[in-house]
Each structure stands twice: as structure tokens, then as C-alpha cells.
């Protein structure tokens, strides 16, 4: 346990709180935050030098580092502030007609589902919601449900790689391939995948893939990416149209010109992505493969401990779990929450009485709810035993 305990020292998290909610906003190591602060100091010391004379070279280097980590072509990779922005950029760029069908599952992250509904309402398209059971027998059931919803009017599927509320890893490569064979493009909401899964974006093959770097990559908040396959790049424009729309330059694509500069902003989060990749990969002898394996093993152990304490069956097979896992809880209040995040009284009890930060999520709708636990290098098995005891004593 000494090695695990020492790893927590690389973060500035409150040592008096058991933090089992890495999945919501991530947590950035202190060394990476120090790198960001140094970049911010440099920016403020000479803003023109930073933005005008040296920015593109640094930005391209950060892009290349992330692309190499993701198995993506740098030419198709751009920075966005978060995965929701990536989803919006794609949806707002595409043209749909009345009667077109846009496919999504009932596990899709609410913010991105809202973007899909907005685009559908504006164009006259129809959102088709596929119900994926939870508990579920296995990934084949998810594939079957999605494919059975495809018609000759289906134009796009918006699918999570790792579902946010239920913590399931969907068989995204198979889904993308099967949908592509049916003539349907896929927009993958990979918010949780980078750093959690052995992600190879090119192998996934989706027309559009967006993911966060502030979650399992542990970069600063505001670092995310959008990858667009080469045959779809001309369709996609940033949410903010700026200088890049009419400044073509030799050696730079319109895609990069438009996305790389949409106005004055703080780019230091994305510039720190290489530092985050290096830092997290250096914390275990086996590098990133060992990081992913350790976190997944801890998530599986943690959900077994909590499930056993609650007397609850596991809702999905181990093969569908990465570093995030959800378990059904006894029903809570039938009333809808007054606030969109962290409204369940049980979550406040766990924090205030047991010093455990873990989300209690209404899903699919009140009174049904889930507890969702995360596993990151600063966590250890004892944290999940404490959660199990606290839940048993609080329910």
C-alpha cells in the first residue's frame, strides 16, 4: 500500500476526503498545474510574443503529442474546450432535412443529448432513442438494440464510448463498423475514453470522435479534442467563425486554421496535455498500460466490494468496465432534483458524515438511482470498503 499512498501525493486533493468522483471533472497532478502556471506567467509577461510569434509551433507540438497517444492523424485533430463542445461543433456543422433520423441511446450524456435535440428541432429531423438495458447481459445486446433501430432515414448516430451515468464501455468499434456498413456515420462521444481505455482513434474508424483530456488523461480543465476523419473534414466548422475562415496559408489546412484560433483565449490547458501524458505515464514502471490496467482492476474490485455489501448483482459483465462503474441503489425520492448535479440527499450524507465524495445519480429517472465510483492512481482498495460500509449504514 505504500506505493499507492505515495501516488496520492502527486495530487492536491483534500487528504481528508475519499475522492471517488474522478469521472466528473478529473483531477490534475500538481506538477502539471505548475507547468500551466509557468505558461500563464509567460503569456502575461509578453502576450504578443506568446500568441503571435511562438504559439502555432507550440500548439502543433501539443497536437502531435496527443495524436500520437491517441493513434490519430494530427491533420484530423483539433482542440476544443470539452467533449460537449466537440459534439456541438459537429452537430451544428452538419445539414439535416425534415424526416432525417438521428440515433442516440438513452445512456447518452444529457448535455450532448440536448445538443442533438436542438439540432433536430431546428432542422425537422427526428431523434430516435434506443433503450439499452441496465442491467445488461453483454455488449452484443447493445449492438443488437442499436442496429435494430436503423432505418433508411438514419443519417447519424451519436454514441458514448463510455457511458457517463452507467459507466459502461460500449463496443464502439463494432458499432461504428456495423453502422458504417449501413451507410450511417457515427459521432462518438468519447468524453471518458482517453487515458481510461487503450484508445486508437484510427482503429475505431468513426467519422467524428471527441474526447476530454481533463478526465482520465489528468490534463487541466479546458483541454479536449475533436478528431474528424479525412473524408468528413470539409463539413466541420468550429462553433466560432473567426480569422481562419479567410486566411489560407501554405502548409496549413482550413480545418486547423479555423479551429486553432477562434479568438483570444487561454490555451495553456491544451499546451499542458503533453506534460500530463508524460507525468501520469511516469508514475508506474509499466507506463500508461500499467496505469490503465491498475485503474481498471481497482474499479472492478471496488464495484464487487460495494455490490457484495449491498447484496446487489453486478449490472454488466467485467468486459464492459473501464475505470468507472455504476451500481443500482434502492429507490430514493420520487421528486425530480431541484438542481441538475448532485441533488440526491444521500450524496450529501456520504460527504458530510463519512467524508466520501461519490456521485449518486438519478437514472434513468427518479426514484431510481445509481452510485458511480471511479478509480484513479490516488485511490486504493480501502476507499471502496469505506464506501460500502457508509452506504450500508446510510440506506
Largest pleated sheet: 7 strands, mixed
Q: What is the radius of gyration computed over CA atoms, rounded to a whole number of angstroms?
A: 21 Å
Poorly predicted runs: none
Please state how the strands of the largest beta sheet are arranged side by side: 2-8-7-6-5-3-4
What's the domain count?
2
CATH class of the largest domain reads Alpha Beta
Tally of alpha and pi helices: 16
Shape: globular
Name the beta content range.
5-15%
Architecture per CATH nomenclature, i.e. the level-2 architecture of the largest domain: 3-Layer(aba) Sandwich
Q: Quick check: average pLDDT?
A: 95
CATH fold descriptor of the largest domain = Aspartate Aminotransferase, domain 2
- The ordered H/E elements are HEHHHHEHEHEHEHEHEEHHHHEHEEEH
Based on helices, strands and strand pairing, what is the structural class? alpha/beta
How many runs of DSSP E, i.e. beta strands?
A: 12
